[in-house]
Write a structure and sequence with these properties.
homodimer; 283 residues; alpha/beta; Rossmann fold; Pantoate--beta-alanine Ligase, Chain: A,domain 2; 6-stranded parallel sheet; 3-stranded antiparallel sheet
Amino acid sequence: MKVLHKLHEIYAPLDFARREGKSIGLVPTMGALHQGHYSLVDESVAQCDLTVATIFVNPSQFGPKEDLSRYPRPLDQDLAGLAKAGTDYVFVPESTDIYPNGHSTWVEPPAVANPLEGEFRPGHYRGVATIVLKLFNLIPATVAYFGMKDYQQLLVIRRMVEDLNIPIRIQPCATIRETDGLAMSSRNRYLSPEDREKAKCLSRALQHVEELTNSGEGKIDFLESEMHRILEQAGATHVDYARIVDAETLESLSRFTTPSVALIAARIGNTRLIDNRVFWVMQ
Amino acid sequence: MKVLHKLHEIYAPLDFARREGKSIGLVPTMGALHQGHYSLVDESVAQCDLTVATIFVNPSQFGPKEDLSRYPRPLDQDLAGLAKAGTDYVFVPESTDIYPNGHSTWVEPPAVANPLEGEFRPGHYRGVATIVLKLFNLIPATVAYFGMKDYQQLLVIRRMVEDLNIPIRIQPCATIRETDGLAMSSRNRYLSPEDREKAKCLSRALQHVEELTNSGEGKIDFLESEMHRILEQAGATHVDYARIVDAETLESLSRFTTPSVALIAARIGNTRLIDNRVFWVMQ
């Protein structure tokens, strides 16, 4: 496994491989890798001739009061895990190379970036869209893997790729969960043992909505209030949102249809967690 | 020469050519081609294995009161000229394919887009940067040719390419002029015979500044007022700006240094014309 740090090092060998007709899978990450990330790497290794992972804690997607400085950076452990998973290249750029002095071009993300996370993390998807486009330009991959856990991010990137005609395929991958249902996240390590117990409430609330809809419940207001009830009863410190919206546009629904998606962002202690569930059920 | 209209038609043959190691030159245009455009094509044909021209009157770079609807579209004449010049591919997409329903991702252009044209044509460079990025993604070119006549555009694109790590080389090409000095422009055909005569004042004002600086004049205020004087005496209907600024950043200069650039935007009759001159002279 080759670990590259400089921007000019990464393009040429991969462009050469691509010219030889090799497929290249890209797994962009912020490090602090867990089984969710490794499931993306596994999928790429299974499908592509070469797999490239990137590790970059992207400052431009963090708000001024967010956890940029304390975001975990266990680089050696991540590199060991990636090597074991069969990764061919790991790109670990420096922030000063990604955002040099005078950098001032940004991606204005598509409309699907505006609700939900867009309201609670203004500027977040502008930072995400910009770094992802930069990585797509630095690394001539044929396919890029993104987890469904960051559902809105996946929609933002898919729409950006379509709108900007970027020649890459976006492959969504299923959310990986702990045995008790908690979606895997680099931020789970912030949770105290007590908060870790409480954190199950996100997946439980989504599970409850699924059960209600399976038994015929179709009132959005009621379903959303049920999610709030479960989150609050479990001791969530704050619920940013618990919504059921159109699975493609994330726009509000007047009644439950399919495909729709339930999305939650809630603070457990000081840790902000997100989760979601897509509904393909027929009413 | 192949003329392609559909977005999915253009990428594959050029990607194939590139895999074979061929260099591909791109000349993006809005049609209504003149010797300025053909000089870009000539340069590409001389330097590259394949030359691709695009013709697309990009609606998103026109303001609501600008000349989008009456912008000249002599397609047959353009195609004949491009064939004669040795162009290999011409890409003529439809507006509804470039901006389909729901398109909502844009490039927020770099800081160098803000002054001058940025003040008088708000949103112009957002439209330019977005369409140019889209064309760079649709057409896997190795080098793209842009005329120095649109000097600020060239800086915007160069900075965008750097900031977004786009794997393409930007080649600036000298402004081509009529024998009396008027910079060639698709908009020159709007000029009445009387206005055509007046239009010489832009290049004359720039020439005058060059002569003054060659003879040691270094006061920016004075040089700018001289440009205004020449433009107004010649009968320019309105001078949007006549500035001397840093040639890289387009920021104001307190005194004449090098490299700097003099830029003019002025209305002659109803036609808005621009021109510029870069100064490499030593003070």
